[in-house]
């Protein structure tokens, strides 16, 4: 007895043809049931009468697909992965083969081939952590998440550094990125300048509780950091998150870039912070085109800079100083004098704001009005020889000391020396 292997669809066709052979239905009803044309049903009926149920089995079974991938192409792709992309995942390797080598493969096809060749193993799924979801902001610029990622970005080819990012909450678009030796106020000033010039002023920055953004000492709890003072002048709110999960979008972007960007830097042989900052804008453009989403509302919440908002004046180090009665103040060991003869009396003992611009120039302001000033030399006492300041006297040559009656202090009447006990002991 011959056994014929059939799929479920072929068994359904066989049952319909049996009813057609028994005269229970006509060809039009079979065509409607199988969702075929009447002409196709006629072909099936003719083949069934000639060869029986075997005619309903697909002739392509057991044969290679016409759309199969060339084994030579797949072997060359795997060889490139072994040579250039040994630690790449299937998705990123597929993109690099397409962009750099011109090899077009489906991600799932490459994934199966890499697993079979032992080039990649799927990671074990971790138990998901439950965090309360937070809905995205509807418009771009309402909330921008910021964070720094210290990492070995150059894989030992260069110094360790930090990548600073600003990611929009509504679209997951990376608005600005900057490589710096560490997370510092100057680095975040440079990142903010890059973001504001490209997009405008957002409504709020969502950051962590780094000392750059908030004062951590209890004694200065009401003071502002340099970055917070600058954002207050730009009218940008700073919101400090209590946990990394609260600003999860920028944290996930950092995790992705620690895989993708590290390998891109390796492929382009980049090993310094300056080269990385030059390469970063093009990479972020490609990243945003692939991973950014469309916000719910088309209106952009970013604001333009007003004419009086000078970034060189705001994004800098600023400190308060108190003027002396001579209208002088000291700033990091140097003495400066205010040249305001018409306002001399009003400026005495007043607080002024000294700004150190990025180009190294100083500016002095009083209630928003810039003051003219000049540097003056600090007068120092001449340093004399120690023997001159503390001469040594040989008292053996001067003879015994004679007390001076004019320099002797009188003893008080109630002094203990004047008590009877003291006088008896003295006698």
Task: Walk me through what this model shows.
The chain is of the alpha+beta class and 427 residues long. It folds into four domains: 8-56; 71-116; 144-291, Ribonuclease H-like superfamily/Ribonuclease H (Nucleotidyltransferase, domain 5), CATH 3.30.420.10; 316-376, no CATH class. It has 14 helices and twelve strands. Helix 1 (8-21) packs antiparallel against helix 2 (27-34) and helix 2 (27-34) crosses helix 3 (38-51). The mean pLDDT is 86.
Write a brief structural summary.
The protein has 427 residues and is α+β, with helices and mostly antiparallel strands.
Strand content: 5-15%
CATH architecture of the largest domain: 2-Layer Sandwich
Main beta sheet: strand number and arrangement?
5 strands, mixed
What structural category characterises the helix and strand content?
A: alpha+beta
> Which residues form runs of ≥5 with pLDDT under 50?
none
Radius of gyration: 42 Å
């Amino acid at each position: 007895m011959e056994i014929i292997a059939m799929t479920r669809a072929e068994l359904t066709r066989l049952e319909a043809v049996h009813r057609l052979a028994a005269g229970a239905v006509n060809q039009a009803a079979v065509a409607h049931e199988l969702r075929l044309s009447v002409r196709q049903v006629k072909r099936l009926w003719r083949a069934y009468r000639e060869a029986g149920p075997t005619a309903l089995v697909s002739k392509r079974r057991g044969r290679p697909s016409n759309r199969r991938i060339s084994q030579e192409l797949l072997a060359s792709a795997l060889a490139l992965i072994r040579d250039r992309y040994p630690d790449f995942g299937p998705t990123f390797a597929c993109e690099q083969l397409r962009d750099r080598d011109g090899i077009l493969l489906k991600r799932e096809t490459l994934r199966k081939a890499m697993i079979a060749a032992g080039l990649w193993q799927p990671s074990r799924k971790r138990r998901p952590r439950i965090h309360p979801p937070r809905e995205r902001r509807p418009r771009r610029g309402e909330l921008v998440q910021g964070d720094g990622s210290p990492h070995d970005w150059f894989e030992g080819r260069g110094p360790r550094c930090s990548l600073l990012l600003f990611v929009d909450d509504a679209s997951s678009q990376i608005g600005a990125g900057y490589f710096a030796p560490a997370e510092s106020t100057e680095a975040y000033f440079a990142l903010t300048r890059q973001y504001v010039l490209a997009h405008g002023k957002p409504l709020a920055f969502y950051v962590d509780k780094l000392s750059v953004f908030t004062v951590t000492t209890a004694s200065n709890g009401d003071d502002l950091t340099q970055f917070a003072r600058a954002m207050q002048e730009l009218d940008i709110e700073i919101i400090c998150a209590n946990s990394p999960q609260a600003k999860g979008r920028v944290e996930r972007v950092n995790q992705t870039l620690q895989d993708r960007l590290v390998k891109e830097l390796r492929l382009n042989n980049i090993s310094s912070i300056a080269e990385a900052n030059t390469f970063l804008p093009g990479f972020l453009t490609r990243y945003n085109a692939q991973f950014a989403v469309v916000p719910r509302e088309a209106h952009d919440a970013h604001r333009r800079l007003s004419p009086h908002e000078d970034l060189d004046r705001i994004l800098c180090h600023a400190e308060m100083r108190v003027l002396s009665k001579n209208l002088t103040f000291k700033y990091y060991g140097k003495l400066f004098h205010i040249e305001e003869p018409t306002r001399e009396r009003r400026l005495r003992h007043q607080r002024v704001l000294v700004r150190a611009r990025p180009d190294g120039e100083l500016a002095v302001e009083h209630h928003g009005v810039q003051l003219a000033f000049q540097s003056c030399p600090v007068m120092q006492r001449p340093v004399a020889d120690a023997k001159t300041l503390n001469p040594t006297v040989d008292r053996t040559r001067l003879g015994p000391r004679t007390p001076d009656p004019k320099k002797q202090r009188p003893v008080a009447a109630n002094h203990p020396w004047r008590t009877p006990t003291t006088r008896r002991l003295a006698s």
